[in-house]
Write a structure and sequence with these properties.
3 copies of one chain form a homotrimer. By secondary structure, chain A is mainly alpha-helical. Chain A has 2 domains: 97 residues, uronate isomerase, domain 2, chain A (Orthogonal Bundle); 326 residues, Alpha-Beta Barrel (TIM Barrel). Helices cover 49% and strands 6% of the residues of chain A. Chain A has a 4-stranded parallel sheet with strand order 4-5-8-9, with helices on one face. In chain A, helix 17 links the parallel strand 8 and strand 9. In chain A, helix 11 packs across helix 12 and helix 14 runs parallel beside helix 16. The interface between A and B is large, with 53 and 51 residues.
Chain lengths: 482, 482, 482
């Protein structure tokens, strides 16, 4: 007999009855609030074309590196899981891949993936039994059948998920035609883009040269000239703003910034563009470009997001065979205090600038990030990120940042996901964990219940709207909690 | 209608009823014990002159960088908050500054500042409604009125706060006349000094040259000569001991120590004093001076305190306009194991030496500091410091140090504050958090209730007295818990 | 009247009644399971000779650096505690040493030593009163009397402790005659060895030259020749496998690995062996040898254990007087992501390779180790180690690794001890803490009770058997939880 699928109403709340009661009350007021998703990696073509998703494996397993990296860590090859490689699509039978996934659910015990999957299986697809070998085919067939129905097309799910805003991420070398198509379609869903220029800023990126060419083509600029290169950024930023963007996003190996004299910056650019890329020059150029991006933000108002600290594509053989983003990106120690100083010295006190910082190195929370965000007007802390987008990770984030930075130098939740169906699961999890943290403060008489209730709403809804400037004019702190 | 001001009797105790009951019992036995404040930054003139404090803004907001850095982080300029700048006193209306503070109390939710303020407002001033825009003027007027009364003069508050000993911090280039005046006044309050020689040791300190001149004047030594410079330290240390000092305090960027051969040390000093200051020489000189200070402590018995790891004055524009200590000091990663080895190799096993270590880098607690303090006879751990002087910070300190260093290689609480009115609030908070930690150990049967009761008293009272050698002769571990 | 000795049935379980009930239920099913001890430092002569242990001080205090380092940290000289020095055996009266230990039990409050001792005193020796000055002699006499009885000989205790397998650690330069003697004795206890080649790999080890000579003698190889040196390793590994070894163990200062071209590796070896040892060469050689060891593991199947990050013999004077392993080894920051890349690039995807990683730097748990183990098929995480083999340390390990690596990339518990009598205490503690963590997940509806029950058994028994390849063939993940 199949095990029941559990999705308890009190999941993620603290065990103590009194604290749980408070958490439940706080959560009750935010559970149904609209989802604000200002940072993520969903595919805009889903919403422009609104075609049905494929099968269970293709939608849920093969694109989700959280899932297949765990299977891979136990010796299960990616070729068995339907993951496409550089050689092309996987030859694996989707049903067989799904069965392997079903047989290894124990690997996900205690992980956020297990919680997200339970939500998706229960709330989105309506299963009442758990996924295990005996139910693998039931799951596979049921999911596929539902996906073929109109109610499971992307726009229908978007509406059902109560998403108020969803941001995707595009590069300046990419067209925004799917965003335009969405706008022109008359559909009311608010899907916007975000400006992620890594491919044209990171000279060590494998697509750097190719991306630059497209960047030139799209802007009509000579991007091999420093002034033309900067102008091309300005042009594309304006185009992104026109497609709804309110933010930029920068995924660098470190948080290094630089503020070179103009002639030095130009000489550095010239050296790189003429083929003289060294690791040191590439790092300095990325650093300089963060400051250049900040300067452009002073003019056009785009909020900056800095996501540093991942050693990308750590597994050489896997990268050679499968390419980027295959679950082999590993965090490294990340320093912020010296790294950000050049940018902060230049523009750190300018009220027009807003920078949201993320980290994969939790040691920076209490030591560096909360003290920085608790002082500089331009800095805010993004939520716990990637590996730390999890109940324990979120709890550590709040425990280690709140006492120094407060709640109001944070920006609410980002789902940061390409797994569209998991979006409501992730926001629900974040709201539950935040309400649990607040409930502990209330139960320990460190905050009143009314303050906690106001803060819960701010974290779920008002702070992301304000931090990502989704309204004009930006909310002031006072109006925030009014 | 104004919200009530909450200061619950069970605040900060764990929510679980059984654990809370134990915490309450442990706390009950230490709540009324005298305050030992062996490390802090109050102004001795308060106690020598005993003049009334000024208004609410001047006393509570403008000097407290915990408060105004948080307001500043949300874009509220220091000039609006009454904070004096290099240009002189602030032109802000104190009442207007107070109103801004009142309107932004939500920023402090979840921070220790909120807890300290609630204590001060409730216990010291007797408010029963919370500070918010509607009560800003009530607060401002009531506080000012009370401050004008005799019961709120410094000495009266000192007595009311049940302070058994209060240490201030002075430099060797500063006179101790206010300490002498206190002694000569006949008032019985025990206010002592501590020897903080950073300004005459740190060649990168902006007042280094000036401080050296005064140092020479006060000691009659040629402080530009290595032997004279060291002799001047000995002379001032003796004067500080005469003014009640039992400790020195060293706030360095890193924990580096050195033990150069005498000729090398002298050559380094000569290079620095003749204008050859480089970052490397300044660092090495600070390192060498920690070992020199340790050697002097072998003779005169002063306990050393080492407070490393802060990047001072990180915000360049703010430093230029407002000067030091304006909430822009940011912690950095801090290494202890290699850094302290030269000093420890020289004197680490000498029973006459006692060094209290602090950190802003919590990663060192379990990795470096607890193993060091759990082995070396000369090392003890100071309490969680600065940004970590908070409920979560204190909890992490105990959770991450106790299993390796025990309780008896720690020294009880330091308030480390210049906010005099917050002293009882801070000690009360520390006692509550320590009792909560002990209560958890008792409830999990990891310690008996009688052991926890003894330990609670040791943490609140006996350990600081012993660690700071406030009695002669020093207490041995056995007598400690007798 | 003496205080009772407490060893509560619910010790270490969370205080909340509901969570405690779940923890108790989970623990009930694993409490009596056999002990698997695949990594430790007990003395094989105990089991080959089966002679009675000496007195209480000699057995419990003098060899246990957890205990005497804490006493030393409070100024109690090792010479008073019966600890042997380079000059020979201690002249201290064992009874006097025991009395000092008894008088300082408060130092261990809140430490795992206190919990292990309580278990040993209560369960192994049957005491009902606590150790304190008044009971010091009672303890000393009772323990000595019991140790003289047959029931307290090593083999009898081994059986009583329900140990299914116990691994000791030997170097390739040591004979395995005690292991052979155990086998030949007909006694059924499974005591195996593990291959710890540090002394012949670490050119900075004080016994390097001497160990190499014995290594040559035992293998008949020219170990001063690169090929002969590697062949000698293969010969000794085979001999260790014959004596039951299933693993190697590598205690290096860092986690550095290297994969030099063969000619480079040989040149490096030649430089070292001909007396050209520098810190850089020694580090590179240790790094290269980890990869060489991995290559040999591909052939002979030994599981690798890497234990990096300790600064050995930090206290110079103590090392000079007392030698190695005297409680003065201090952890340092330890990096894994770049360090392991050369080895992983070479063999990280080979299903024949299994590497168990340990750390003394808890910051690596969530940042580096869990992401690495949650991806690479060859990597698993060893339990929280040394200073972190404690309730809070184990809790942090689970909280910081599970969400990314799951439970099934960890290997269960290692006691890692030379304190034989503490083995059941340590495993009992680990099982209680793991069950408490699982109970929290169940109570927060993050895992079902049946999943938790299965996982508890896996952590206590199945995972160590599988990870250390104690059965042939190795268990697959599916059979693991079948």
């Amino acid at each position: 007999m199949a095990r029941p699928l559990e999705l308890h109403d009190d999941r993620l709340f603290p065990a103590d009855a009194a604290v749980r009661g408070i958490a439940r009350e706080l959560y009750g007021a935010v559970a149904a609030m609209p989802v604000i998703s200002p940072h993520g990696h969903t595919d805009p073509t889903w919403f422009s074309l609104n075609e049905p998703f494929g099968n269970a494996t293709e939608l849920l397993l093969a694109p989700d590196h959280y899932l297949y990296r765990m299977l891979y860590s136990q010796g299960i090859g990616l070729e068995r899981l339907g993951v496409p490689s550089r050689a092309g699509l996987s030859a694996a039978d989707p049903r067989e891949a799904w069965r392997i996934f079903a047989a290894n659910q124990h690997l996900f015990r205690g992980t956020p993936s297990a919680l997200w999957l339970a939500y998706v299986f229960s709330k989105v697809f309506g299963f009442e039994v758990a996924l295990e070998p005996e139910t693998a085919d039931l799951y596979f067939d049921t999911i596929n059948e539902k996906l073929a129905s109109d109610a499971f097309r992307p726009r229908a799910l978007f509406d059902r998920f109560n998403i108020e805003l969803l941001a995707t991420t595009e590069g300046p070398h990419e067209t925004l035609r799917h965003h335009h198509a969405i706008r022109e379609s008359g559909w009311k869903g608010r899907v916007v883009t975000a400006y992620r220029p890594d491919a044209v800023i990171d000279a060590e990126h494998e697509s750097f040269g190719e991306a630059l060419e497209t960047f030139a083509g799209l802007t009509g600029q000579d991007v091999h000239d420093w002034a033309g290169y900067l102008e091309a950024h300005r042009i594309r930023r304006a185009a992104f703003i026109d497609a709804g963007a309110t933010s930029t996003d920068h995924g660098h190996p470190s948080a290094a910034t630089a503020d070179l004299a103009p002639a030095e910056a130009e000489a550095l650019f010239d050296a790189i563009i003429s083929g003289g890329v060294t690791p040191e020059r590439a790092e300095l150029f990325r650093a300089q470009m963060l400051t250049e991006m900040a300067r452009m933000s002073l003019d056009d108002g785009l909020v900056m997001q800095i996501h540093p600290g991942s050693f990308r594509n750590h597994n050489r053989l896997l990268f050679d065979a499968y390419g980027r983003d295959k679950g082999a990106d590993i965090p490294r120690p990340t320093e912020y205090v010296r790294a950000l100083k050049p940018l902060l010295d230049a523009h750190g006190n300018d009220p027009r600038l807003s920078i949201i910082l993320f980290t994969l190195d939790e040691t920076a929370y209490s030591r560096e990030l909360a003290p920085l965000a608790g002082h500089y007007p331009c800095l805010k802390l993004g939520p716990s990120w990637w590996f730390h987008d999890s109940p324990e990770g979120m709890r550590r984030f709040r425990e280690q940042t709140t006492e120094t930075a407060g709640f109001y130098n944070t920006v609410g939740f980002n789902d940061d996901t390409r797994a569209f169906l998991s979006i409501p699961a992730r926001h629900d999890l974040a709201r539950r964990v935040d309400c649990s943290f607040l409930a502990r403060l209330v139960s320990e008489h460190r905050m009143s219940l009314s303050e906690a209730a106001e803060t819960a709403v701010d974290l779920a809804y008002r702070l992301p709207r304000a931090a990502y400037r989704l309204d004009a004019p930006a909310l002031s702190p006072q109006t925030l909690t009014a």
